[in-house]
Structure formats: C-alpha cells, structure tokens
Write the structure tokens for this entry.
Amino acid sequence: MNTFVMEFLRQPVQSQQEHRALVQAEKMSAAGNLLAGLVHELNNPLTTILGFSELLLNEDAGKGDRIRTIRDEAARSVRIIQNVLRLARSDSGGFEIIDVNDSIRRTAELAGYQLRLNRIELELRLSPMSPKAIAHEGELTQVLLNLITNAIHAISAVRASGTIRISSMINESSVHIVVNDDGPGIAGADLRRIFEPFFTTKANGTGLGLHLSQKIIREIGGDICASSSKSNGATFTIDLPLVTGRKADRSESTSDDPIITGASRSVLIVDDEDNITELIESALSASGYDTECRNDGGPAIDLLRDKEYDILICDLHMPGTSGREVMEWVRSNRPNVRTLLLSGDVAGRETEEIAKAYGAHFLPKPFSVAELRRAVQRLTS
C-alpha cells in the first residue's frame, strides 16, 4: 500500500466517509497481495517462453516468423509484469533518476486494456530530449495511471469514445507532463476542491486518488494543477525538477553492451524449476561457460563442498534448502564464488536487500537470454 495511504489511515476514523476509505484501502491491499502472488507464479513460465524462443531464433532463422511472434508476445508479457512490479514497489526504496518519457510509455501500456475496452485513443506527444527527473518511478506511474483512469471515467460518462493526450516537454529547469482529455471537463466549484481528501464526484470513489497524487508530486519537489473548459475537457499539468548534465547521463541504459564469451568459467545453476535450469544452461553453454545444474539447495551445497565454481546462479525460494541457506554456506565456505540471485518476487525490494547482504548480484524474473548473459558477465568484470 502507498506510504501516504498508510500514514493517512493510521489516523482515528472520525466519519463514515473515512471508514469507507479504510475498507476500500484494505480491499486494495488484499488484492495487491494476491496479485503479487499471481505475478510471482507467472514469472517462471514467462522466463521459459521468452528464453527458449530467443534461443530458437538464434538456432534457426529460417523458421523465424512464428518463433519471433512467440518471442515478441512473451516480451510484451514481460513488460507488463515489470510495469506491475514497478507499481507494486511504489512505496519502497529511495529516489532514482528516471526517464519521464519511459514512465509515460510504461503507464500507457498498463492502461492499454481499459483504453481499448472504452474505445479511447491515447496520443503521446513526448519530448525528443528524453527528460530526466528524480522520483519514485512506481509512484510517478501511480499518479499517471490515476489521471488516465479518471479521464477514462469522465469520457465514458458522456460518450462512447474519446481521446486522451499526454505530452512531455522541457521548460528551463522543469519537466512538464500534461494529461488532457476531451471529456466534459470539471465544474468550477469542483475544480477548486479537486485535490481535497475524500472529495469525489464518482458514485463509488474514495476521494483519495488526486489528493495522494498531489502529495506524491510535492514530495519530490514538483507540483500538480488542474484546469478545465467545455471545449477542451480537463487538463492536469505536472511540473517536476529537471535533472541535467552528468547525473542524467549516468541513468542511461547499458542494455546494448556487447556479449563476451564465458572463457570456460564454471557455473553452478540452482533452481527448483527444471525448465529454468535448462534454459540457463543452454544460454550459458552456448557462450562458452562450463555448467552444472541442481534443483535443490542441499545437493548444490554438496557439489560446492567437492568442487570450486567461479559462479553460482541460485533461485531464492525453493521447497527444500533455500537460496538464502545456500548463499549463507557460500559466504562462510566459498567466499570467492560470485553469486547471481534469481527471484520472481514483486512485493518489494526485500530480495535486492538480501542479495546485497550476501554480496550477490540480483536478476529478477522474468529475464531475457541477453539480460542473463550480461548479468553473468558483470559478475566477472
């Protein structure tokens, strides 16, 4: 649950309105926990589908079209999972430098189904300069998703289709994000109260969405305002402090780094999903790594007692001896082994903190073959 919701709902319940908001927040929290579990279960099969389709494309380009379709659809599913992951993490971790345009695109993908269902076109008019800002990425996604959802509801209340436009632009030291819809707009009296807690014009609304959105934006040094007209619908403008220079350059992705061969380095792969171990073994063997696999932490520790490995790739959650127990043994007995921790958890940053505590690198599921190879190479660089 978002930090602001938790803080707000810790206050004494003083009205029926607050009580309804509390009940709704508890429902959303329970739904979020259920979703996190479902996403965790999906991450293993998605990793398998994406990874093996990539390997098949590399092996036989002649059958490329259908395999490429499988790979592209798996990659699309992975993007959706990762977007949910960012949203689930909205109340954890610190600020980071983010690409505002990327956040807008990811939010648009999350809202895609509701947009199509309501026959609403989303137009993106994004700055070619890829503006950067310091924010919680999940929380910015939460704000944008709330604005898009509100716009969908406003348009659908008066017509069968419509348009939402999201623009980004740079103005001196600020990044502007403008969300505009062609709905009926907001009445003048309502516009003055739009960010008040518990104020809502929806029959089933909590009146917390815009209030919390304003708090989120102001916490990162920005602001949000609303305007409206009958001819142009409702417009929300978000101003964020612009990040420039070296700080922005450091946030650039290194996803296109060249792939380097494994030079016969030995790798022990431990995951209770046989398809995952087979995928990792196939991907790394093709790059020159010497691999062995186990599907439980106990047998993996037995191997580690008898043989020196350069790299350990280990899942965190396994029904027998867990990945954490394996890393504990490695830290005490094989401190030179470099470890890559795998997990499909989406509930927070706990897994990353566990990896740091044991001096391991972390690769979240689902991942592509290219991401796997880069992660393994970073262990030895």
About this structure: The first strand starts at residue 96 and ends at 99.
